[in-house]
Write a structure and sequence with these properties.
five-stranded parallel beta sheet; Arc Repressor Mutant, subunit A; alpha/beta; 2 domains; about 220 residues; single chain; about 20% strand; elongated
């Protein structure tokens, strides 16, 4: 999943970005409202974490503008203001949730997961493809009941493919989902990670679950 974190506090934004990256998310960071709105309009995010007090354009204005333009991506508002009236204003502009600073990182992650599960169509917490089972809450992968350990990036790619079973996903689609704006699209990292996934999830018998579709990308076969 891909997340935009917008906060003018560069230290806090870096901490949140690093933590979400370790949780398997691809994260872009903006430090003012104008930059946040630009990123949100040109990229496809699963969630936006938006601070209210930012220079150039405040978070409330950004949220309102994005909603008026039809963007339905879940938005989690961050603010140092904890008055009920402030929370009401944030939610009324189109935010889906509200988190008061300072906050525990574990709570932020829990809210991120909850918001992404609410998207339409609904996201199941457990994904299955044949005997391959991925729990998106615990991030535990098993095949035939045997646990398989994934890196954060392997998890991000496999989750995306399991949410799109039997569909051809291009390298560009995988890059868009699993990497941020700093990704070098001319590299072969997608192919490298797909090979690693194959080595971990394929059984000794039968064809690979991840097919290469020549000239198009990859497809997760559902047995």
């Amino acid at each position: 999943m891909r997340v935009l974190v917008a906060d003018d506090d560069e230290r806090l934004a870096a901490v949140v970005s690093r933590g979400l990256t370790e949780e398997g998310y691809a994260v872009d960071v903006a430090h003012d409202g104008e930059e946040a709105q630009y990123y949100a309009e040109i990229n496809d995010y699963d969630l936006i974490v938006l601070d209210i007090m930012m220079p150039v354009q405040d978070g409330l204005s950004v949220c309102r503008s994005l909603r008026e333009n039809g963007l339905r991506t879940p938005i989690l508002m961050l603010t140092a203001r904890d008055a009920v009236a402030d929370r009401v204003v944030g939610l009324d502009t189109g935010a889906d949730d509200y988190l008061v600073k300072p906050f525990a990182f574990d709570e932020l992650v829990a809210r991120v997961r909850a918001l992404t599960r609410r998207q339409s169509p609904p996201r199941s917490a457990e994904l299955r493809a044949g005997d391959l089972c991925l729990d998106t809450v615990t991030r535990r992968l098993t095949r035939g009941g045997v646990e398989i350990v994934l890196t954060a990036k392997e998890y991000a790619i496999l989750e995306y493919m399991m949410r799109n079973p039997d569909a051809v996903v291009s390298r560009g689609m995988i890059e868009e989902h699993a990497w941020n704006n700093a990704f070098d699209s001319v590299s072969n990292l997608v192919d490298v990670y797909v090979r690693r996934l194959r080595s971990k999830i394929d059984s000794d018998e039968g064809p690979s679950m991840i097919e290469t579709v020549r000239g198009a990308g990859y497809r997760l076969r559902v047995p």
